[in-house]
């Protein structure tokens, strides 16, 4: 029974890795589609969303089966319930990635007019948060998870700054309105992806430190996540 | 033990009811703040978000405790794991409500210029979806949940239509840009609230019919959610 449990848990971790990798690929392709003005790549992002949705259902089923047939306790129980939430967060990231891909296709049709201002920088930041939150989940690296939570503010600031800049473009030249509006929406999608990475990082801290830091980011310091002796 | 379990489950349901009611109030106030141009009300929405966040943490803890100390099976297990997801959906609805309230405050400062087009209609639709999804969850009314899933397309269409209308305003009169942009963002937040209601409705169908309809809305018919004999 015990061995069977660990095999099932291992299988769950492997499926989560496949899901995480699919979502990371989806985000990377959506951003490349935007920066490289490559609508073919954007369409690949839209196509692969079905696979991500299927993986979400499969992971949910594995978690429920583990809860129903085993009686996981402590860290294992937290791992499984958090896996259900992280799974959900990953699927939503995939949806935001599809939104970005769809907006990239529209922008590519509108023709090149302006550089993308700080969008590529914001995208790189969000991508690094996705990567680090997933790495921290897989390897139980709580310090890395904490670092993700802190970086979220930087993305929020970039989102605000981009909003103001793009609003100014729109006011000064009505020819830029449709394009600037799409970039604002892309920025909002990146901000949500960063937010969801933060959710994952908070779950990681919860799994490995049994400490709920949600909604208390402002007071977070290293003391909160130090291993319990 | 058995009796103790049902008491704890009952308590969880009651806390979920308080959470649901707080989120419904928050959304209603945010929309009133926008329609009535009442920034005081908008500030109340921002203030009450802390309470919603606290409730989310409390519900999560209750669910984990139930999973750890009891061994819930079948419908009870699905109820508890779905409660964790619904809890998360509700907290996110609260966040969208805060976004709407913050945008309402900015709009109120900009002064009245245009009617709100179809925003109030979209808001009523989203609110009715929130209410029906929560009613269906509490009373196990699967048909009502199914109806929520179907209405989601209507909200998406309204969101698209509002986007096009507001874009036209912006193009025709640069004086409307800041305001129209805020209304577009409000529309996106309403669309997300409707989406989250749909998530809840999908969970309800899963709890009471043990049928996963997620990502298969297009093929959903009454057959899928008929009680199993």
Structure write-up:
The structure is a homodimer of 229-residue chains. With 229 residues, chain A is mostly helical. The first copy, chain A, contains 7 helices and no strands. Chain A has one domain: Phosphate transport system protein phou homolog 2, domain 2 (Methane Monooxygenase Hydroxylase, Chain G, domain 1), CATH 1.20.58. Chain A has helices at residues 2-35, 39-69, 74-110, 119-139, 142-172, 177-209, 222-225. In chain A, helix 1 packs antiparallel against helix 2 (39-69), helix 1 runs antiparallel to helix 4 and helix 3 runs antiparallel to helix 6 (177-209). The two termini of chain A are 30 Å apart. The interface between A and B is medium-sized, with 33 and 33 residues.
Write the layout of secondary structure elements.
2 copies of one chain form a homodimer.
Chain A: H1 2-35, H2 39-69, H3 74-110, H4 119-139, H5 142-172, H6 177-209, H7 222-225
Helix pairs in contact in A: 1-2, 1-3, 1-4, 2-3, 3-6, 4-5, 4-6, 5-6
Key attributes of the depicted protein:
229 residues, Methane Monooxygenase Hydroxylase, Chain G, domain 1, 0% strand, homodimer, 7 helices, mainly alpha, disordered C terminus, 83% helix
